[in-house]
Amino acid sequence: MDGKKLLMIVGDFGEDYEIMVPFQALKAVGHEVDAVCPERGEGDTVKTAVHDFRGDQTYLESRGHDFALTADFEAVDPADYDGLVLPGGRAPEYLRTYDEVLDVVRHFDDEDKPIAAICHAAQILAAADVVGGRTCSAYPALEADVEGAGGDYYDGVVTDGNLVTARDWGDHPEWLSQFLDVLGTEVEHGQTVAADD
Questions:
Q1: Domains contained in the chain, number
Q2: Mean pLDDT confidence for 174-197
Q3: CB neighbours (10 Å) of residue 3?
Q4: Which of 31, 51, 120, 189 is catalytic?
Q5: Fewest CB within 10 angstroms: 7, 22, 84, 196, which?
Q6: CB 136 within 8 A of CB 146
């Protein structure tokens, strides 16, 4: 079976690892990933930020890579996609102000399609009103945001129905593993195989 078609919404100063690693890992197992950003088109780039945890009260931020978009946000139809990936970083704090972004998130949730969100992406989930009554992880400083949106905060990686959430890039192995499970993806010797329905 061919891989799934996934949509990733990114923006300037999204977290470098939380964009690059899932983008590459999901492609490596055979999925197609379209990375988009509001007001940007295919081939445009967003600037990323690297967040490092060194024992301070919060993370240290430094400039990351330029990340090339693979599709035009205005041209994509969420109905054409099987899953959604929302990286963290600083981008979610302003991406949540775009009604079009929130509409995309609501589409995936309404259709019970898999959504993977990490770190500060919980800000987008909360703004889209898809957290209420669910268990959701996020960067620990967003516990109040998750609870304020009616969710139960979980300090780790958690799957609640179609929603797979994690705290930060340190959770990548378990987060991506759980997301692949929700997608119905089995990886055998680097090949994507259809899971039994």
A1: 1
A2: 79
A3: 18
A4: 120
A5: 196
A6: yes
